[in-house]
Amino acid sequence: MNVAHLAPLAVVLPFLGAALAFVLIKHPRAQRRVSLGTLTITLALEAWVLASVWTTGPVAVKLGGWEPPFGIVMVVDQFSSLLLVISSAVSLAVLAYATGQGAADGEEGGPVSIFHPTYLILVAGVSNAFLAGDLFNLYVGFEILLTASYVLMTLGGTGSRIRAGITYVVVSVVSSLLFLIAIAMVYGATGTVTLADLALKLGELDPGTQNVLHILLLVAFGIKAAVFPLSFWLPDSYPTAPAPVTAVFAGLLTKVGVYAIIRTETLLFPSERFNTLLLVVALLTMIVGILGAVAQTDIKRMLSFTLVSHIGYMIFGVGLASVLGLAATIFYVIHHITIQTSLFMVAGLVERRGGNSSIARLGGLAKLSPILAVLYFIPAMNLSGIPPFSGFLGKLGLLQAGVADGSAMAYVLVVGAVVASLLTLLVMARVWNRVFWRSTFDAENPDPVLLATAPDASGVRTMRALRSSKHVDATEGRFSGENEIPILPNMMLYSTAGLVVLGLAMTVFAGPLFDLSQHAAAGMLDRMPYIEAVLGAGAGTP
Amino acid sequence: MSVNLTLLLVMGVLYAVGIYLLLERSLTRILLGLMLLANATNLLLLTTGGYAGLAPIFNKDMPASAYNDPLPQAFILTSIVISFAVTAFMLSLIYRAWLLSRADHISVDLEDLRVAQQDLYDDEEDSEIAIEVSDFHENLQPLGKRETIRGMGPRRPRPPHGKEGKG
Fold it and tell me: What Rg, from alpha-carbon coordinates, does chain B have?
């Protein structure tokens, strides 16, 4: 028996952990241990699974022993197991961050204790979506993670979160309904929902029917992946959520949509019917997204727009439909999950340190908190694609794939990708200049928290070591209260630093990772290894 | 594959009404629209199973074509459960929105407004350093205008406790 057969545990374990965490809802400390322990075990297991499929082809796990295409099947291949490992590592870091925040703010016993079970269910849903071997199971995975995300998005139920939450829920429900309609039509046309079986049967359909099914799936996944023009909901809803929630959403949720698009384009509809459309959409996503970021004055909203913009890079690689393009996309996906999440985590820390996330109200943080400056600078340069970071390597792969493609459209995309990258550098540098580099007193409307902790004009720091709420003006509600609230809890700093280091490790081990991506991409474009793993040898040949 | 025309017509009407309601600004109507759309999709799933047949309990003497296709019904059950959960959650969201703002419609994103109203030219760096560093800097809009930007307007006095039930 192969280790890969243990992969369904990546879904089961978080569910069990969620149940246990729910039982322990009155015991925050035990609850924290359960959820952190569950995710650590899950991550170890997934790393083991990844090691076992590193060089081999896909492995199909037949749940309940039912033979596909009749039973439910989960498929573990290099791409899905790589994504599992990265997503679990990122969610573990964010959980540690949230735990640090919750412990620091003394929210024990409050409604926030619902956070841990919901978070684990979100992780289970993400894992389920990555492992799903049939379209309906993919839908169920999406619904699990979306329902959990509705709860996380509106934690606390403040006015702005409710407003953003309603937009988010309605848009997500509509995209899920579109997905369900697509499933119904696919089932009506072929009589199956197993991906491998569909891969064989969809090609035999009438081209018109294929077009309808293809475009329905792309629209449904495009909303989830926040591809322009279906991306309007994302910058509207993400920034209002609590910092750890935004971080994990930015890292994982859109990537599940990208994953589904990649599967649709490689496995279900390998024909190049909509590739030009994908390229156009990718270009618009990159450019419109980053122009939106340029206009923002709030760090979190700006990051949300860069998130949208960089989804465009991934769609670019998918639209090229070459091994190199797809490999670069896979590499870019795992790079972007790590980097975007760490940037949102740093934004949460900046908001804690400076009292605000608006650029106009911050300044001088490089002096006030050098570690925060380092933690921001590295992923910011990484995201902008400055050599030698992984962002540069991923973009380089995409540009090479674009040039290798050689069509006029691909060259336009190459130029667009470079422009979007430069504009990313612009917005990242602007945040750096204003929030970190300039003096606190140059800020347009400095936040009271920031002023209380900054040195005065003669350079004397009145309150250098601000550690607790007792030292801050009680009129600023955020830090008032009876408990001492450390402004930058160690656990939050360490977890953010851990993720930044993971991003750096991706740069160091870019060679093996890119080889793996290339291997995975070749297998996915060939399709036969996947189909034969699920349906048995010789299934693909008529 | 043969389909039931009545089901198709009902489905079409449900989709049409659902989409119309979804485009409203009132939250309750949006929720009703989503519920109708979910039910229309369930009907669509049902029609993919073909004509009604016998319950799919295996019997050796029965030809396979006499059975109904059970798979779409399993899909529908799952989808009903999911839409039930989401509807319940939406209702709680709407109730919370009502508690907070006494309004049953989607409000405007304030940050969006702020971004839209900022100057086109953004004098980038520290070309002029603000001397006054108070919270109420002169660059800000006058107080009265600011309130309208934030979408709050002058706060309406809440009705006395006994008369709230009418809304």
Answer: 27
A62 belongs to a structural domain: yes
Question: Domain check: are B147 and B81 in the same one?
Answer: no
Which residues in chain B have Cβ-Cβ distances shorter than 8 Å to A239?
Answer: 111
Which helix (H) or strand (E) segment holds residue A168: the answer is helix A159-190
Do the chains contact at B97 and A163, CB–CB below 8 Å? Answer: yes
On whether residue A542 sits in a domain, the answer given is no
Mean pLDDT for the stretch of residues A481-500:
77
* Mutate: best of A180, A193, A216, partner B, most B CBs <10 A: A180
Residue A95 lies in a domain: yes
Q: Phi and psi of A464, rounded to 5°?
A: -70, -45
Check whether residue B38 and residue B74 sit in a common domain. Answer: yes
pLDDT of residue A475: 45
Report yes or no: A429 at the B interface, CB cutoff 8 Å. no
Contacts of B15 (CB under 8 A, 6+ apart): B36, B37, B40
Q: Please name the helix (run of DSSP H) or strand (run of DSSP E) that holds residue A75, with its range, or none.
A: strand A73-76
Q: Tell me, what CATH number does B74's domain have?
A: 1.10.287.3510
Rounded (10°) angle between helices A490-508 and A370-384: 30
From the list B18, B89, B83, the residue with the least C-alpha distance to A165 is B89
* Interface membership of A296 toward B (CB under 8 Å): yes
* Chain B interface, best mutation among A145, A166, A297, A300, by max B CB count within 10 A: A166
Interface of A with B in 201-260 (CB under 8 A): 236, 239
- Smallest Cα–Cα separation from A421: which of A446, A439, A394? A394
Closest Cβ–Cβ partner in A170, A183, A236 for B109: A236
Cross-chain residue pair A169–B93, CB shorter than 8 Å: yes
**Which residues form the domain of B90?**
5-53+68-101
* A118 contacts in chain B (CB < 8 Å): none
> Tens of pLDDT along A411-449?
999 999 999 999 999 999 999 988 888 887 777 777 777
> What letter would DSSP give residue A298?
B
Q: Which of A63-77, A120-134, A439-453, B28-42 has the lowest mean pLDDT?
A: A439-453
Q: Are A210 and A194 in contact (CB under 8 A)?
A: no
Q: Which residues in chain A are closer than 8 Å to B124, comparing Cβ atoms? A: 430
- B93 closest CB neighbour out of A143, A166, A441: A166
Point out which residues pair with A60 in neighbouring strands. Answer: A75
Q: Beta strands A73-76 and A59-62: pairing type? A: antiparallel
What's the CA gap between A49 and A78, in Å, rounded? 9
Confidence of residue A484 (pLDDT cuts 50, 70, 90): low
Contacts of B54 (CB under 8 A, 6+ apart): B62, B66, B67, B68
Q: Of B47, B44, B46, B49, nearest to B15 (Cα)?
A: B44
- Do B15 and B73 reside in the same domain of the chain? yes
Under an 8 A CB cutoff, do B111 and A239 touch? yes
Q: Whole domain around residue A201: which residue ranges?
A: 3-535
Q: Is A173 on the interface with B (CB under 8 A)?
A: yes
Picking from A163, A177, A296, the nearest residue to B38 by CB comes out as A177
Whether B86 and B113 share a structural domain = no
How many CB pairs (< 8 A) connect A and B?
Answer: 112
Q: Which residues of chain A make contact with B85, given a CB cutoff of 8 A?
A: 147
Of these ranges, A454-458, B27-31, B142-146, the one predicted with the greatest mean pLDDT is B27-31
Say if residue B90 is in the same domain as residue B113: no
